[in-house]
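Notes from the 1:1 (GR / supervisor)

We went over the backlog. Supervisor wanted to see one worked example end to end before approving the batch request, so GR pasted a single chain during the call. The sequence is below; no edits were made to it. Supervisor asked that the structure be written out right there so they could see what the output format looks like.
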Amino acid sequence: MVEVGRERRQRWVEQKLAAVPGLTPGHRRSLSVPLMESGWHLLVAQTTPFPPRGRAAAFAVGRTGVYAFVFAEEIPGEPVLRSIRKHAEETFANLEFGRNQFVPHMVQVVLLMPEAGGQVDYRYLVADDSTIRATLLTGSATIKSKRARLLATAAAERASGYSLITADDVPVSEIPAADGLFTDGELREHERDRMLGRPFHDWMVFLDPDQLALVQRNFNGPARFSGPAGTGKTVVALHRMAHFAKRNPGRLLFTSFVKTLPNYHRSGFERLAPHVGGRAEFTGLHAWALRFLRERDAMPDIDSAVIKNAFSHAWLKARTPLAAITGTDNEYWKDELERVIKGRGITTLQEYQKINRAGRNRIRLDDGQREKVWENIYQPYQKWLADRDVHDFNDVIRAAVDELHDRPLDEPYGLVVVDEVQDFTLMELKLVHQIAGGRTDSQLLFVGDGQQQVYPGGWTLSDAGIPIVGRGAVLKTNYRNRAAVHEYAKSVDATNIVDDLDGGPGFVLRDTDVVLPDGQAEVCTGRRKDIEAKLVAAVREASATMTDIAVLSTTQAEATRLRDALGKAGVSTLSLTVHDGTRHDVVKVGTVHRAKGMDFAAVFHIMTRTATPISKLGGAERDRAELAGRQTMVALTRARDYIWVGIVED
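Structure output shown during the call:
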C-alpha cells in the first residue's frame, strides 16, 4: 500500500511539472524532490528559455526553510551570485505574518549542478541529484507547516513570473498512508525530536519589523543595541552576524564576560548560518585573551592562590583605616580594586582621584579617602603579586590590549559582537575594540542593558574612546515574558534609573510593551530553610518539563545547596556552568550570573526581603541592595511562562 501511494504522488508531481514550459527531464527530477514531501511548496519560474539568468529558477519552501534553486553547470561569478541573492531576498522581503516579517537573509541559495562534490561556500550550497533531498530535509525544523504554506502563497502572489505548486494539493485519495521516503533512522530521529518537545523558534525566520531593520542596517563604525530584558537584543545580534556572514568573507567573533554564554548561543547561530563553518568563533573574553597571549608567547603567570592571598594581605593593612567608610566589608573594597581601579587600567593615584566612579557613587570617596584606598589596598596588593612575579586577570586583559596595540591581528575579524556588555570593565571594552581593529570604522556591535548589570562598577562607552554617536538603537517590545511574569518582574526595585550604555537616559523593563498574554507568578514567604524545602516541592510538582525549568540563585553556595536538595528529592539536575543550550531532560541550576542571556519556560528563584526599603538605605548598603535588585530582576526575566518566587524574611 505504501508503494502504491508513493507512485500515485509521483504521478501527480510529474503531471504538475510537465505543465511548466521549458523543463528538461533533469530539471523535473530535481524539482520533484520537495514536492514528494508533504508540507513542501514550490515556486517555479515561467520563463523561456529555462532556467532564467541572474535569479532563481525555483524556490522551495518547507519545514527547514526557504531555498532558492539555481541550475548551473559551473559556479557562477560573483556579480551573478549577488544578483541571485538580491532577487531571492527581494522576493521574500516584507512578507508580514501578524506583527512579524520573514527574515530575507534566511533564504538559502542552492546551486543544482551535475556533481556536488561536497562544495560549501558562505554564499551558496551545491547539490546534485544524489544530495538534494538531504540538503532540504536534514536541517532542523524552523517553520511550522501552516506558516510555510502562508509564506509560499504570499511570495507567489508578489513574484511575477513564478507559479506555485504545493504538495498539500495532492488529491486526498492519492495521499499515501506514509510516503515511504523516510529511512528507519530518520523516523527514529523524527520521533526523538517530537518526544523532546523541541519548540519551533519563530525568531529563526521571523522578526519584528523594527528588529529586522536593525539586522539589515549599515553601520560605518562601532554600534550598540540596548533595551530591557526580553526585547530580543541577542536575537537581532545573531541574525546580524548571519546576515554579514552570508555576504562577506572573513572571521566573526561573539564574546561576553559570562564565559558560558557564547557557547550557549553558538547553536542558535549555527541554525541561522549552518554553512559558515569555522569562520564564526564563540568564546568568553578571558578565554580569548589567554589563548591570544599564549600564541604570542606573551602569557603572564597567573596563580589563583597567590592572587587570593595578595588581597587578604592587603586587607589586613586596610581594614582599620577604611572601617570608618564601610565598616569591615572587604568585598566592597575587593570590587573597588578589581572593577574600578584595575578594571579601568588605572596605575597612578592622580588618575584614581580624577575619575567618576560610575556605579559606586553611593559612597563618594574624596581625594583623601582615595589616597587611603590606594596606599592600603592597591599598592600592597600589587607589591605582593610583583614580589612573586604573578599577575591577575585584569593584568591579562591589559597585556592583551597592549599586545594588540603594538601588533594587530594578522587576520582581522570582519565583525565582533559583544553580548551583556554592561558587565564588562572599561579595559575589557578597550580590548574588544582592539580585537575589532581599534578604528573609528571597526565593525563592533555592543549588546546590553544597564538595568541588567549584575556586577559592581560602571562606565560609558565614551570613557573607552569608542565612538557610537548616531549608531545606537533601543529595542522596546518584550517578546519573552508572558504578562504575569512581566508584571511581577517589573515590580522589583531594580534601580530603574539606568543609561543607554553611553550616558543618555535609558529605557527600562517597566516601560516595555508585552506581546504574550497570560502566564503565572507564584510567591511564597517564610524562613530560608522552609523556603528552600518549598522550592524543591514546587519543582517536583511543576507542570513544565524538566528541560524547560531553571532554579536560579544569587550565590554559588546556594546553587550547590539547592542542587543537593533536588538530587535527594529525586530530581535530576545540570549545573548552568556546563549548560550549552542542548536540551536535556534535567532541571538547570545555577547563579543569576550564569543564567544571563538564557531563557526557560519556568524559573524558580529565592530572594531576601530587606527590613529597610532601598530608598532609605545609604552608602555601601544602598549599592548592595540595588545590585541585589538587578540580580533578582535578571533571574525573573529569564522565565517565559511561569515564575515561582520564594521570599526569605529572616
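Supervisor's comment: The chain has a mean pLDDT of 89.
Batch request approved.
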